[in-house]
Amino acid sequence: MHTEREAPQSLSTIRGTVRWQSPSNIAIVKYWGKHGNQLPSNPSLSFTLSSAHTTTTITYSKEGDAQLTFYFEGKDHPAFARRIEQYLESVFRIYPVLRDYRFHIRSENSFPHSTGIASSASAMSALALCFGTIASTLSKALTPASKQTISELARLGSGSASRSIYGPVAVWGAHPKIPGSSDNYAVPVENMHATFDGLCDSILIVDRGEKAVSSSAGHALMHGHPFAEQRFAQARHNLDRLIPALRNGDIETFIEVAETEALSLHAMMMTSTPSYMLMKPGTLEIIEAIRALRASSGTPVCFTLDAGPNVHVLYPGQVAPEVRSWIDSTLKQYCAEGQVIHDQAGAGPIRLKS
Ligand code: PMV
């Protein structure tokens, strides 16, 4: 009698380890306001950074009790662990093959803890890359998991994380002039002018404290916001102007869009109900100084802000030496313990040896 024997499971379907390093990103056109399951109310564009990144290692196996153990910088972190536990539902919906596995996750940030730098983009993209890689190993796919699906999974963890899958520039959110763009995942922006190669971003840490209002609460306050529709239209229009500027090396338009977007983001916070303000006096001092330098010397330097008081100073690589020495002499006085993180646009995530 012929009996069918089950093929022995290969070692990689029983247990394995994957590791990814994934960078943070800085949005020039901001995502602020969402609906449904993490869908953006307007398209956004960001530069992917290089030095500010998260390294995540996941060991998967079929054995063990706990479905998830999580260590952040070598220690238990119950708040992050709870967030990842919830996130596993999204992971399993996209990659059902992962349902039967247990995960041991370790994560580290390259930037010092509690600098006020949002790490959700780097953290959630690193996780999505690890889960996508494990899923393609387990399902014996000949090609790696598609970047599109990984970007979608990253989005479900944190909207801005969808863009960190690509470097140096990515757009998330459907826009008629960007072929292939989608609300579900980010797409890379190609054919950029050399002016923007390795765009520098010096992050000035004005305040290291926990934000008074989280980004999730801020997104929620865009529902019923009196200026919501105008804001979403402004973002679409700014993206319309920014794409050709990036392709033609038009730094003036880049500067105008970057600063308008930053102040518009904070204007939304200041005009929501309840209203709130995340900028600090040092934030305004730095903004004034940047504008004064530009007016007096013509140096192509500008600022953008995340949902917080810290200032991202943006400038092309060609003027890096002079801008950095000016930051040291003029702007460091406004930073908490003089803290500045010099970063620049990079090529995107890197898979590391596990
Ligand atoms: O991805 P979230 O939910 O942390 O929101 C990010 C929002 C901003 O950083 C303020 C803007 C952006 O597009 O990254």
Describe this structure in words.
- The chain has 9 helices and 14 strands.
- It has helices at residues 11-14, 78-94, 120-138, 147-157, 215-220, 228-248, 251-270, 281-297, 320-331, and strands at residues 15-29, 34-35, 39-40, 44-61, 68-72, 75-76, 102-109, 169-172, 186-188, 200-204, 302-305, 311-315, 340-344, 350-352.
- β5 (68-72) and β6 (75-76) form a beta hairpin.
- α2 (78-94) crosses α4.
- The longest helix has 21 residues, at 228-248.
- The N and C termini lie far apart (45 Å).
- (3R)-3-hydroxy-3-methyl-5-(phosphonooxy)pentanoic acid binds at residues 27, 30-32, 44, 118, 120, 158-160, 215, 265, 306-307.
Characteristics of this structure?
single chain; 354 residues; alpha+beta; 8-stranded mixed beta sheet; 4-stranded antiparallel beta sheet; 9 helices; 23% strand; globular; disordered N terminus; binds (3R)-3-hydroxy-3-methyl-5-(phosphonooxy)pentanoic acid
